[in-house]
Amino acid sequence: MVCSPNTEYGLIRNHFCFFPSHLRKFAEQIRAHTLIESANRKIETMLISSMDTDGDPCEDFYEYACGKWETFHAVENKYHEAVSLVDYFTNKEIARYLKFMNRENKPSFVLKAHDYFLSCRNLDVYEPLEYLKRLNLYENLNMRSHHRRRLGVNIDWLRILAVMRKYGLNGIFVEEITLQRNDDATVTVIDLDKPVKNGGFQLTDYDDLKLLIQTLRRPMRRKSFQELWDQINAFEYRLKRLDLLDDPEGNILIKVKDLSIPWLKRYLELVVDELNPEMEISIQNKPYLQKVFKLINKYEPGFICKYLELRFLWHLNVEGPPNFTLEDCAGSTQTLMPYAIHWLFEQMHPELVKEMEEIHKMFQQLINHFSDSLKNNTNNFDYEQSQFLLNKLSNIQLKVGNLPRVNTEEKLNVFYKDLVTNPFDFYGNHLKLLKFSTQTMHKRLNYRISRDVDEFFYLEGSEIGFSSSPYFVQRANVVIVPVTSLQLPIYHPEADDIFKYSSLGFLLAHEIIHGFDYTGLGVDDNGNLNNAQLEGLVNNTRFGRKMHCLRYLNPAIIDEKIADISGLRLAYETYFKMHPKAHGQIRYMYGRPYDVEKVFFLNFSQFFCGPVSNTLVDTKEHGLDRDRVRDALQHFEEFSAVYFCPRGSKMRREKTCQLWRRRYSIYTEVTLKVRKLYNEFANACASTRNYQ
Questions:
Q1: How far is it, in rounded angstroms, from Cα 26 to Cα 21?
Q2: 109 Cα distance to chain centroid
Q3: Could you tell me what percent of the chain has a pLDDT over 70?
Q4: What is the protein's membrane topology class (predicted)?
Q5: What average pLDDT does range 533-552 have in this prediction?
Q6: Around Cβ 367, how many Cβ atoms within 10 Å?
């Protein structure tokens, strides 16, 4: 054991350094045992305190496992499930650190992040119009359309739109993003399309507009506001109708110089620095892109300018800190400079960095078990299809912490070198960071994306930078686990394997399975699209029947249903494969006996637990948490067998949907048959008593 003083980042004091040397080893053993007991005890407390034992696990397991979660956590709308709980406390910790941070000997990228944090904290009153002053300074863009009319200056709405795109505004009239080529995942191209992200073009909300006008501190009479709203509403209605236009040509790959829509060509020239006319771009929905230009030109340029100004200011409001509190400013810093804060968090928690090797071992165990399942070939795939699946699985990689792992500090300094920040200019810093994000996306057009997982790091958007949830990068075949997720209630280094595999193990399995869901099967081991293989797999009679069964649960989110149901099975089977003697064992939690299998299901459910009326979770992508728990367990025969659920109960299905299932081991088959016989015997006894 190495004795050292307090570290600034880790905030860890090694008290045992004060022991005589011959007692240190014994003291360290006691400490390790205490940590293990403490970690397991915390998890058990969480499980027992969240349960509503008055509920029936065979009727509604979510209510049974999570019914008292809200009471135990005393939520107060600060967090609403496991990931937001981790995010909340992580953000509080980062906020405290940034508040008292000593800037001496820090890397330049950390100082720049700290500058933004300080500028956020130093802001007294939020004045959105200050953004427009900075925009005029940086881009020579005067947004005061009424002054322009008075001076006889032409209003170039296309240039205004392009400049605003540089600062993050997207999905207004046109959506401009970068995508990987279908046939080469290491090459990115610009994609021009109608607004499609988050369900398409987002209409202005009446209350949002009212709030924005109030923050602008420009007095506006009620009648004037209503006239403005009516204008915007009518205009957006016509924009939304263009969504209905068909796209007979579909996705087209062409060179910039061959782009036949002049306004789009000029838009690109204004948005992308040093645009190469030979560069290939992807374009979709050409009829829409042609019609939208004609529609805009039917309106007064002054109105379009005003409309863009309002949409841009609301965009800045959404992409900035909510209320400029200590935690809000820390969260905004993490969102806008994610890699700097990822690096800082790892310096604060070296004990979590040490866990990377353990997470890789867990990941490999899951991969190995899934490989055995594929080789089992219960779907009767032909040789070519089986090799396609096995090759893809062997190429899926894990990345713990979304940072380059070779010369990390040096590379982050280079990554942020062009960024200039000022601790007393929030508006300027915010605009510069948004522009930096767009420029970084465009810079990737000039080089290939590395397939080396140590060199690769994913460009995080605002929805990912703040989140501790693991995710799968489909075209890179990489599962990314934020280091912040290696905390309770998701993970603890000293927790027993039953808790590790039923929580983080499930999340890893869930992300692995995303490589083999409906979308994932259309991507090969190199990250390239392969629709021919997808068609062949789906046309397999047995596999297609299972896919149809899962689609019936919720066709809009079939990929998530596949990942939840198959991910639970993969994590469960992997744990019991590693711990075969755990089957049938009893674990005592606060003096109460629980089958180990039941403990697994209880801790699995903890990831989804939240308030009874949880309206804060976005359910578009994954569905309701209650449904996710219910569907995953209903379609897992072992669950109803472990809980002896009688026939006809809601949590027991006679026919289950499982896309990736291996044949049971003899032990599992015998166990299920014994439990099934017991269930039938219990049901028969109950029927006899009722008859008597």
A1: 10
A2: 24
A3: 87
A4: Single-pass type II membrane protein
A5: 88
A6: 21
pLDDT in tens, 75-119: 556 788 889 999 999 999 999 999 999 999 999 999 999 999 999
Secondary structure tally for the chain: helices H, strands E = 30, 9
Rounded Cα gap, residues 602 and 62, in angstroms = 9
List of residues 6+ apart from 589 with CB closer than 8 A: 44, 47, 48, 599
Token pair 């800190």 in the structure block, residue:
321
Q: What is the mean pLDDT of residues 381-398?
A: 95
Do 254 and 265 touch, CB atoms closer than 8 A? no
Tell me the sheet residues that pair with 593: 588
pTM (two decimals): 0.88
pLDDT in tens, 457-507: 888 876 676 789 999 999 999 999 999 999 999 999 999 999 999 999 999
pLDDT at 277 over 70: yes
Domain ranges of the chain: 128-146+155-316
Q: Are 357 and 405 in contact (CB under 8 A)?
A: no
DSSP per-residue codes, 99-167: HT---TT--HHHHHHHHHHHHHHT--S--THHHHHHHHHHH-----HHHHHHHT----HHHHHHHHHHT
Average pLDDT over residues 415-420: 96
| Per CATH, domain 128-146+155-316 is 3.40.50.720 | no
Q: Which pLDDT score is estimated for 23?
A: 45
Q: Which residues pair with 472 in a beta bridge?
A: 479
Structure tokens belonging to residue 292: 């939208």
| Sign of the Cα pseudo-torsion (357, 359, 364, 369, in order) | positive
Q: Is 252 exposed, middle or buried (0-12, 13-18, 19+ CB in 10 A)?
A: middle
Cβ burial 181-208 (10 Å sphere, 16+ → b, else e): bbeebbebbbbbbbbeeeeebeebeeee
List the one residue out of 664, 668, 655, 670 whose CA is nearest residue 373. 664
For residues 190 and 279, give the distance between their C-alpha atoms in angstroms, rounded to a whole number. 9
617 pLDDT band (50/70/90 cuts)?
A: low
Exposure b/e, 610-622, CB count within 10 A at least 16 = b: bbeebeebeeeeb
d(Cα 518, Cα 556) in Å, to the nearest integer? Answer: 12
Distance CA 210, CA 593 (A): 57
Q: For 189-203, 396-410, 535-549, 669-683, which range has the lowest pLDDT when averaged over its residues?
A: 669-683
